[in-house]
Each structure stands twice: as structure tokens, then as C-alpha cells.
Amino acid sequence: MTTIGPAEPAPRRRRGRPGYDQPAILRTAIELFNRRGYDATSMGDLARELGLTKPAIYHHVTSKEQLLGEALADALDELTSVVTEASGERDGVSAYQRLREVVRRSVEVLVAHQPSVTLLLRVRGNSEVELAALERRRWLDDRLAALVADAVAEGSLRDNVPPALVSRLLFGMVNSLVEWYRPDGAYDHAVVADAITAIAFDGLARHEAHQV
Which residues form the HTH tetR-type domain (predicted)? Predict the structure, then answer.
């Protein structure tokens, strides 16, 4: 898993206690960061949540910042891959089709990584780790805006809305899922992905002047 932050070699860690591994600690840390707030959560809080001592936590991780970096990378890595793939031209696949694909797959990524995406949307740039995550988010916005501009240029989308604004609105619609979507709720993630894609692009589709 990629960690966001300064590229420093990780110290060699001892093997952890049976029953606890780094992924389990990371999942618990993300839940605690979301519930209490990252700044208000200490490694002692995490140890108590897991029923471990602080030294036992350090069998697996070196710092709270490492956990934050891994959590934010979990939120960003797959989405970065989705946007990178869609940004590349493919024979027979229009920019409009690639843009629709990004929106639909972004919903799938959010659902699969909802706790870490929730944490990502709350960072404010208070540390190097958070600043690096925000820079990656800006890159995603820029790539999506470029794809919107390509779709406008090919005549697939209306040209009276700035591409950067469209990008923010699309990601905003997807990101709003963290506030209400529940995997065990009334709507399957595929239904939600279809609905968001249909609503977004039916509203963005270019119409002739005489049409409303």
C-alpha cells in the first residue's frame, strides 16, 4: 500500500502479536480518526480501542502520521488509477464515454473505501501528509477537468459550463455518498452508480437550441 508523505525508509519492525496485524490496526485507526478527529486521537487512544498497550501498537506501525498516510493512500490510489486510465486516449472510445466511466467507477471506489474516503474529505492540510493528499486531489480535479474539456471539444457536452466547475460538481456528487450511503441500506452500490451517472450526464448532454 502506498503511503502519502515524505519518502523515508521505514524502520524495521518486530513481528506483531498474534491476532493483530497492520491492516486491522489501520481499519481501527481510520474508524477512530473519523469518530474523534485525527488531531484529537492519540496512539494511546488507538491502543485502548484495540485493547493493546502502546508498545504493542509499535510492533506494527511507527507513528500516527504513518497510519494517516496509509489511510489517505487507500482512499486515493485506486481512484488515481481510474482517472489515469480514463485520461488516456483509446481507439473507438470517446472522451464522453471515458468521462462517464470515471464517474461510475468513482462510485465503486468510494463504496469499497468509504471510511478512508470519508477521512480524506476531512483533511485540511495541517501536515505534510495532509498537504500531499490535497495535492493529489487537485491533480485528480485537473485530470477530470481536462477530460470534460475533451468531451466538450468533440461536441458531446454543452460548452457553456466551465470544465473545472463540471469536474468539481461531478466529484462533489460522488463524494456526497459518504454522508448517507450505507452498504446494508436500501440501495445497492450498482443502482447508486447508475443513478448518479444517468442524472449527471442527462443534465450535461448537449441539446439543440429549441429543446429545453
Answer: 19-79
Span 138-161, average pLDDT: 93
Q: Which amino acid is at 98?
A: R
- Say which residue the cell 477530470 belongs to: 144
- Per residue in 95-115, pLDDT (tens digit) is 999 999 999 999 999 999 999
Q: Where are the domains of the chain?
A: 22-62, 69-204
- Residue 30's closest CA among 145, 98, 123, 107? 123
Residue type present at position 9: P
The CA-atom distances, in angstroms, between 197 and each of 160, 171, 180, 185, 203 are: 20, 11, 18, 20, 10
> Can you say whether the dihedral through the CA atoms of 194, 169, 114, 13 is positive or negative?
positive
pTM, entire model: 0.81
User: Which CATH number is associated with domain 22-62?
Assistant: 1.10.10.60
